[in-house]
Design a protein that fits this description.
Elements: E1 2-3, H1 4-14, E2 27-30, E3 35-36, E4 38-44, H2 47-55, E5 60-65, H3 78-89, E6 93-96, H4 99-103, H5 109-116, E7 120-128, E8 131-144, H6 145-156, E9 161-163, E10 169-176, H7 184-189, E11 194-197, H8 204-211, E12 214-217, H9 226-239, E13 242-245
Parallel strand pairs: 4-5, 4-13, 5-6, 10-11, 11-12
Antiparallel strand pairs: 1-3, 2-6, 7-8, 8-10, 9-12
Length: 252
Amino acid sequence: MAELKKIVDFLDKELKIAEIEDTGNNGLQVKGKQDVKKIAFAVDGCVEIFNKAAELGADMIIVHHGISWADSLKYITGLNYKRIKTLIKNDISLCGYHLPLDMHPEYGNNIQLARLLDIGELSEFGVYNKAMIGFKGMLKNETSLDDLKRIVEEKLNTKCTVLNFGRDKIKSIGIISGGGGSTLCEAIELGLDCLIIGEGEHHLHHEAKEGKINLILAGHYETETWGVKALMPLLKEKFGVETVFIDVPTLI
């Protein structure tokens, strides 16, 4: 058992939320019981996750996409009321960590993806909100785009959309989890062979084609399970709590 405040204070400091400009209100968003025995981890803050966490006996939920954003929770009605009611009814705390859990050099989605895909010579990449949130690096050996697609699909258990507009052989790669399309021009300027993101907007097709770069869209959800999963052993060891990941993939 651990104190909620100690867990939150530790995460806030470790993920450096005070230093990161974000649209998400990172940290504790709904306060529940003071003592924490079990923490559920998930990608999205939604009623389905909250109900599953309650069924599993969780005292706290840590998600990548919380329910409190710069332009949300102005009124506690509709979906906002339903979500908050579910948490309060079950006395469950909710923490959300958005950009801090994309960009962290040890526990972030992007570094975890880079390691999963065995990308070396890593350095920071991808400017967003005046911060570098992703990573770029090199594969050990040149790989065909088809083989890279297969590897990504196997490692992430996903189905990729591929825009084949660049070199036939891939060596240099940039990684930005989730909606990382805003970094495509940066990847083109750097001469990367391929950019891997979660999802993209319509205009990225023409930008990738004109920029002669390969673009792999591996799924917003599938690229963003890795940060919260990386926190699980950390908190289990430091605070002696039980941990469980709740897998609720999205269709878009």
